[in-house]
Amino acid sequence: MSFSVERCADGDEWNELLDRMTAASVFHRSSVLNVLADHSAGTVHRLVGYKGREPIGVFPVFELAKAGVTAAFSPPPRLGVPFQGPVLFDQNGLKQRKRERRNRRFIDACLEWIDDAFAPRYVRVCTTPGYEDVRPFEWASYTATPRYTYTIDLTPDPDAIKRSFSRTPRKNIESNDADLEITNGSAEEIRFIHDQIRSRYETQGKRYTVPLEFLLDLREATPPRTVRTYVGRIDDEPTAGLITLEDENTVYFSEGGGKPDADVSCNDHLHWRVIRDAKARRLSRYDLQGANVPRICEYKAKFNPRLRSYYELERGTPLMRLASACYRRLR
Prior knowledge:
The protein is an alpha+beta fold. Helices cover 37% and strands 28% of the residues. The chain has helices at residues 11-18, 30-40, 96-118, 135-139, 158-163, 167-174, 187-203, 212-221, 266-280, 294-300, 318-329, and strands at residues 3-7, 43-51, 54-66, 69-74, 87-88, 122-126, 143-153, 180-183, 227-234, 237-246, 250-256, 285-287, 306-315. Strands 1, 2, 3, 4, 5, 6, 7, 8, 9, 10, 11, 12 and 13 form a 13-stranded mixed sheet that branches. α9 links the parallel β11 (250-256) and β12 (285-287). The radius of gyration is 20 Å and the shape is globular.
């Protein structure tokens, strides 16, 4: 039976497909893709692979053109989205040979569609942690580089989760910081978190590339529970905060975690609040991210997370790889 790829133009139809896939993430949702397209100045192609008329996978791809070079990204750069890429429908019951053949034919068909549609000179894809078999990309001359994230299993009871933490965050969480109040929900909190992180980057001689307008639009364009803010306040003054994104199973750390302007372990309390809230909503996983930077690993490993891998996949000449740096610097 033949494999084919079609572009899905209907956002509701796309989301209905995602609802049937346990491996799809919040970064694949149609409303998120629309905001990413607006702020990357690119065109999103919602690709659906079919075996006959049976959908077997989805693959959102962004077409960007800058400095005379057309490139394909999933996800687009500079917006703080860690991964996206292809997702297959659940393949429970399929033997390994059929699973591998289905995955390869799906990826081959998608890559052929991309080349035929706009012939990108550079392609960069970051897969989700659940997508492990990237060999079809390597066989198509892509370079595969492993990347990492941290996840916390939210299925045990809260006390068991807390007992698994290292001594320092456990002690900080159990201390009764009576002056600390955690609030959430407002656009002003997003502004505070963005300003705090931007200032921290600047003190390190770096540039924070995630635009405030992107975060505000993401909050406005997605369902109410998708984007959440948590800000720790002392005497009604904000000290530190973080932003999370959420789908049916997972809450994702997105932005924040800046150094508090107070002698209080605010970030430990913020992460613990996210965990407790997510458990109350019966989510199963907290994706902490931050596992690719040694300095951040030192802090986040204290929460005893599981290390999970995903892959950065690239195709292009050395000159085009140099051009990709231009993509990441320019809006």
